[in-house]
């Protein structure tokens, strides 16, 4: 696998892995399935590390946190349900462990000695953010209208979903600051591969006494990855998902994959409504924020195209000029 080693050596990347991309198509999400899929993903990233690149890896957790919420519901009569911020923290640990173990193994086979470190990451949100009170982000399983009415209470909200069924919905505020930013930077500068900000980070606010407390919300993972990439001043943000890139006229005969595009043109397509808020929209916004803030390049690509995405040959390449 050619990552153009000399060109990529010493460059810094934030690699964002989608939660759905970590479960095989049609899979049940078992530990064995996810371990195998993560191992395959790390097999694609290890040569980049071997070439000398510095990596921060973020990841999604949508299917995984949904499974934890389902366990909460099914076992509520036996054990106390855990709050959403705890569930996000749990998935940071389990998915982070899988990525850490797999990448260490792949690097060992390449005779590369690099530390791989998982950082449990909290992300501050602004209590005055209008999105803080908008219940728009669906999480967990689909249920009937009757079950939704039975499950809903003063703190849990449900909404009918396109395609049928009801799902729990929570706020999705903007990521304002990454609490462990300095620790992530120190580890990166010390030569470690850092796994951080899983699931968009554990959402927290600052209480009146100065203490941090978790909130029942979900932060978009790609927007957090973009913020982290900007704060660390990395060279490239790479968003790997289950799609081959960003396409205009999606789902029609005139669908076209955007391959190399400037921020201004991409903003135009965004304004025209080409990218769904539930899927490609946040990825496009994350890429735009990074490049518009001075980042060299942002890429949206399929997980299988990781090598080509980094080399500038696959996916949607967002470049300032």
UniProtKB/TrEMBL annotation:
One matching Pfam family, short form?
AA_kinase
InterPro entries linked to this entry: AceGlu_kinase-like_sf, Asp/Glu/Uridylate_kinase, Carb_kinase
- Residue ranges of every copy of the Aspartate/glutamate/uridylate kinase domain listed in the record: 12-301
Recorded GO terms, molecular function? Answer: carbamate kinase activity
GO cellular component assignments = cytosol
A biological process (GO) of this protein is: L-arginine deiminase pathway
Q: Which UniProt keywords apply?
A: Kinase, Transferase
Q: Does the keyword RNA-binding apply?
A: no
Protein family (similarity comment): Belongs to the carbamate kinase family.
The protein's name is Carbamate kinase
Q: Per the UniProt entry, what species is this protein from, by scientific name? A: Candidatus Nephthysia bennettiae
